[in-house]
Design a protein that fits this description.
This protein is α+β, with helices and mostly antiparallel strands. Helices cover 48% and strands 18% of the residues. It has six helices and five strands, in the order αβαββαααββα.
Protein backbone atom coordinates (compact mmCIF):
# COMPACT_ATOMS: atom_id res chain seq x y z
CA UNK A 1 0.00 0.00 0.00
CA UNK A 2 1.12 3.54 -0.60
CA UNK A 3 1.14 6.36 1.88
CA UNK A 4 0.04 9.88 0.91
CA UNK A 5 3.65 11.00 0.26
CA UNK A 6 4.50 8.05 -1.98
CA UNK A 7 3.80 7.80 -5.65
CA UNK A 8 1.93 4.62 -6.51
CA UNK A 9 4.08 1.90 -7.97
CA UNK A 10 3.46 1.10 -11.62
CA UNK A 11 1.01 -1.63 -12.50
CA UNK A 12 2.59 -4.97 -13.31
CA UNK A 13 3.09 -5.79 -16.98
CA UNK A 14 1.17 -8.53 -18.76
CA UNK A 15 4.34 -10.62 -18.67
CA UNK A 16 4.67 -10.19 -14.90
CA UNK A 17 1.02 -11.08 -14.34
CA UNK A 18 1.28 -14.16 -16.56
CA UNK A 19 4.46 -15.22 -14.73
CA UNK A 20 2.58 -15.03 -11.42
CA UNK A 21 0.01 -17.49 -12.75
CA UNK A 22 2.67 -19.91 -14.00
CA UNK A 23 4.45 -19.76 -10.63
CA UNK A 24 1.47 -19.97 -8.27
CA UNK A 25 0.33 -23.54 -8.90
CA UNK A 26 -0.75 -26.03 -6.25
CA UNK A 27 0.26 -29.70 -6.18
CA UNK A 28 -3.28 -30.33 -4.81
CA UNK A 29 -5.97 -28.19 -3.17
CA UNK A 30 -7.98 -29.62 -0.26
CA UNK A 31 -10.61 -28.30 2.14
CA UNK A 32 -7.84 -27.89 4.71
CA UNK A 33 -5.77 -25.91 2.19
CA UNK A 34 -8.75 -23.59 1.62
CA UNK A 35 -9.09 -23.03 5.38
CA UNK A 36 -5.35 -22.42 5.83
CA UNK A 37 -5.10 -20.05 2.84
CA UNK A 38 -8.25 -18.17 3.82
CA UNK A 39 -7.02 -17.88 7.41
CA UNK A 40 -3.66 -16.57 6.18
CA UNK A 41 -5.42 -13.91 4.11
CA UNK A 42 -7.61 -12.90 7.05
CA UNK A 43 -4.61 -12.71 9.39
CA UNK A 44 -2.66 -10.58 6.90
CA UNK A 45 -5.64 -8.29 6.30
CA UNK A 46 -6.24 -7.90 10.06
CA UNK A 47 -2.59 -6.94 10.62
CA UNK A 48 -3.00 -4.22 7.98
CA UNK A 49 -6.48 -3.23 9.16
CA UNK A 50 -7.68 -3.82 5.61
CA UNK A 51 -11.47 -3.60 5.30
CA UNK A 52 -11.82 -6.64 3.04
CA UNK A 53 -13.93 -9.70 2.45
CA UNK A 54 -12.13 -12.94 1.53
CA UNK A 55 -13.61 -15.83 -0.43
CA UNK A 56 -12.38 -19.19 -1.73
CA UNK A 57 -14.39 -21.27 -4.17
CA UNK A 58 -13.57 -24.66 -5.66
CA UNK A 59 -15.67 -26.34 -8.35
CA UNK A 60 -18.69 -24.17 -7.59
CA UNK A 61 -18.55 -24.68 -3.80
CA UNK A 62 -17.69 -21.92 -1.36
CA UNK A 63 -15.00 -23.35 0.92
CA UNK A 64 -14.09 -20.18 2.83
CA UNK A 65 -15.59 -16.75 3.42
CA UNK A 66 -14.80 -14.01 5.90
CA UNK A 67 -15.78 -10.37 6.14
CA UNK A 68 -13.56 -8.06 8.17
CA UNK A 69 -14.52 -4.80 9.88
CA UNK A 70 -15.09 -2.07 7.32
CA UNK A 71 -16.19 -4.43 4.56
CA UNK A 72 -19.76 -4.25 3.28
CA UNK A 73 -22.25 -6.43 1.39
CA UNK A 74 -21.00 -4.63 -1.72
CA UNK A 75 -17.68 -6.47 -1.32
CA UNK A 76 -19.52 -9.79 -1.58
CA UNK A 77 -21.09 -8.64 -4.85
CA UNK A 78 -17.64 -7.63 -6.17
CA UNK A 79 -16.24 -11.00 -5.12
CA UNK A 80 -18.89 -12.83 -7.12
CA UNK A 81 -18.34 -10.66 -10.21
CA UNK A 82 -14.53 -10.97 -10.10
CA UNK A 83 -14.71 -14.73 -9.43
CA UNK A 84 -16.93 -15.22 -12.49
CA UNK A 85 -14.20 -13.64 -14.63
CA UNK A 86 -11.67 -16.16 -13.30
CA UNK A 87 -14.10 -19.02 -13.92
CA UNK A 88 -14.86 -17.87 -17.47
CA UNK A 89 -11.34 -16.89 -18.61
CA UNK A 90 -9.22 -19.20 -16.43
CA UNK A 91 -7.03 -16.23 -15.50
CA UNK A 92 -6.75 -13.65 -12.73
CA UNK A 93 -9.41 -10.96 -12.90
CA UNK A 94 -6.70 -8.27 -12.90
CA UNK A 95 -4.86 -9.97 -15.79
CA UNK A 96 -8.07 -10.21 -17.83
CA UNK A 97 -8.71 -6.48 -17.35
CA UNK A 98 -5.06 -5.69 -18.18
CA UNK A 99 -5.29 -7.68 -21.43
CA UNK A 100 -8.25 -5.58 -22.55
CA UNK A 101 -6.47 -2.35 -21.55
CA UNK A 102 -3.36 -3.48 -23.51
CA UNK A 103 -5.60 -3.64 -26.61
CA UNK A 104 -6.69 -0.04 -26.04
CA UNK A 105 -10.14 -0.86 -24.73
CA UNK A 106 -11.80 -1.98 -21.51
CA UNK A 107 -13.42 -5.20 -20.40
CA UNK A 108 -16.71 -3.37 -19.96
CA UNK A 109 -16.61 -1.96 -23.53
CA UNK A 110 -15.40 -5.05 -25.38
CA UNK A 111 -16.16 -8.29 -23.53
CA UNK A 112 -19.88 -8.27 -24.40
CA UNK A 113 -20.52 -9.55 -20.86
CA UNK A 114 -22.94 -8.01 -18.36
CA UNK A 115 -20.95 -5.75 -15.99
CA UNK A 116 -23.48 -6.55 -13.25
CA UNK A 117 -22.35 -10.20 -13.51
CA UNK A 118 -18.64 -9.91 -14.45
CA UNK A 119 -15.90 -7.53 -13.25
CA UNK A 120 -12.34 -7.73 -14.60
CA UNK A 121 -10.97 -5.82 -11.60
CA UNK A 122 -8.10 -7.06 -9.45
CA UNK A 123 -8.60 -9.37 -6.53
CA UNK A 124 -9.58 -12.79 -7.86
CA UNK A 125 -6.85 -15.29 -8.70
CA UNK A 126 -7.22 -18.78 -10.14
CA UNK A 127 -6.55 -21.80 -7.99
CA UNK A 128 -4.55 -23.91 -10.42
CA UNK A 129 -3.62 -27.49 -9.61
CA UNK A 130 -0.81 -29.33 -11.42
CA UNK A 131 -2.29 -31.71 -13.98
CA UNK A 132 -5.84 -30.45 -13.44
CA UNK A 133 -5.77 -26.76 -14.41
CA UNK A 134 -7.96 -24.08 -12.87
CA UNK A 135 -10.29 -25.59 -10.28
CA UNK A 136 -11.41 -22.50 -8.39
CA UNK A 137 -10.59 -18.99 -7.26
CA UNK A 138 -9.39 -17.08 -4.23
CA UNK A 139 -10.82 -13.57 -4.09
CA UNK A 140 -10.37 -10.42 -2.00
CA UNK A 141 -12.49 -7.27 -2.23
CA UNK A 142 -12.30 -3.99 -0.33
CA UNK A 143 -9.09 -2.27 -1.43
CA UNK A 144 -8.19 -0.58 -4.73
CA UNK A 145 -8.03 -3.28 -7.39
CA UNK A 146 -4.24 -3.52 -7.64
CA UNK A 147 -4.00 -3.77 -3.83
CA UNK A 148 -6.62 -6.55 -3.79
CA UNK A 149 -4.59 -8.40 -6.44
CA UNK A 150 -1.30 -7.92 -4.61
CA UNK A 151 -2.77 -9.15 -1.31
CA UNK A 152 -3.94 -12.39 -2.93
CA UNK A 153 -0.62 -12.93 -4.77
CA UNK A 154 1.34 -12.27 -1.57
CA UNK A 155 -0.75 -14.79 0.38
CA UNK A 156 -0.52 -17.42 -2.38
CA UNK A 157 3.25 -16.95 -2.61
CA UNK A 158 3.65 -17.31 1.15
CA UNK A 159 1.31 -20.31 1.33
CA UNK A 160 2.96 -22.21 -1.52
CA UNK A 161 6.49 -21.43 -0.28
CA UNK A 162 5.51 -22.66 3.18
CA UNK A 163 3.99 -25.83 1.67
CA UNK A 164 7.22 -26.52 -0.26
CA UNK A 165 9.29 -26.15 2.91
CA UNK A 166 7.19 -28.79 4.73
Amino acid sequence: MTTPNQTPEPAPTLEELEAQERRLVFPRFTYDDAWALGSLLVETARERRAPVAVDIHRAGQQLFHAALPGSTPDNDAWIARKRRVVERYGAASYLVGARFRAKGTTFEESSRLDPDTYAAHGGSFPITVEGAGVIGAVTVSGLPQLEDHKLVVEALTHFLTQAQDN
